[in-house]
Amino acid sequence: LTKKCRPGLQIPVPAGFYLKDVTRHFTTQTKTQCLKDKHIYMMGDSTMRQWFEFFAKTVPTLKQMNLHVPYQSGPLIAVDVENNIDLHWRAHGVPLRTRKTAVASLHYISNEIDDQAGGPHTVFVFNVGPHFTTYPLDFYTHRVLRIRKAVLALLQRAPDTTVIIKTVNTGYK
Fold it and tell me: Is the Cβ–Cβ distance between 144 and 128 less than 8 Å?
């Protein structure tokens, strides 16, 4: 019997995935092996930052560097030289609900994708959503269309690039 979602329930730790009726869990070793030789670029809101934090915390060989920037908006980076992993996170561009952040530190997802060559060792993971709920739908649609255009161009120049789109959390407003 599954408990209905409500405040106060223990928060499950993401530790696997569900695909084709099979749940697979990752150990520290399998997580490291999965990330080995990868350049991972994560952009989005705080839920995407939580993915960054999860990897930085559960892959012991990843070491987070202090870039002396506001933590809420980044950019953040963690590296594992031995396994050739670099994990990047930064907040998506405006609109953003965060503390003071230098405008120069706010990059749009589409521009970040356009700035990378891509390839078999490159992974993009991004989300947009909650920060757009107080804006007209056209604003969100325009942003998503720009990201789509950038992803299509990326996959045209480097079809072996992995692109993962995280949808918004279903419980949000």
Answer: yes
Cα–Cα distance for residue pair 51/112, rounded to 1 Å? 19
CA angle 67, 71, 74 (to 5 degrees): 65
Cα dist. 22→3, 14, 17, 18, 25 in Å?
21, 15, 8, 6, 10
Residue 160 has pLDDT above 70, yes or no: yes
Q: What is the pLDDT of residues 101-145, one digit of tens each?
A: 776 777 788 999 999 999 999 999 998 877 767 778 888 888 889
Angle at CA 95, nearest 5°, toward 79 and 142?
100
- Residue 171's Cβ-count burial label (10 Å; 0-12, 13-18, 19+) is exposed
Instruction: Give residue-wise pLDDT tens across range 35-45.
Output: 999 999 999 88
Identify the CA nearest to 143 among candidates 94, 102, 103, 73. 94
Q: What is the pTM of this model?
A: 0.80
Decide: helix, strand or coil at residue 69: coil
Tokens 């998506």 appear where? 92
Residue with tokens 């942003």: 143
Cα–Cα nearest to 104, from 135, 70, 146: 70
Reported as type and span, the H/E element at residue 162 is strand 162-165
How far apart are the C-alpha atoms of 145 and 137, rounded to whole Å?
12
Place of tokens 């084709």: 20
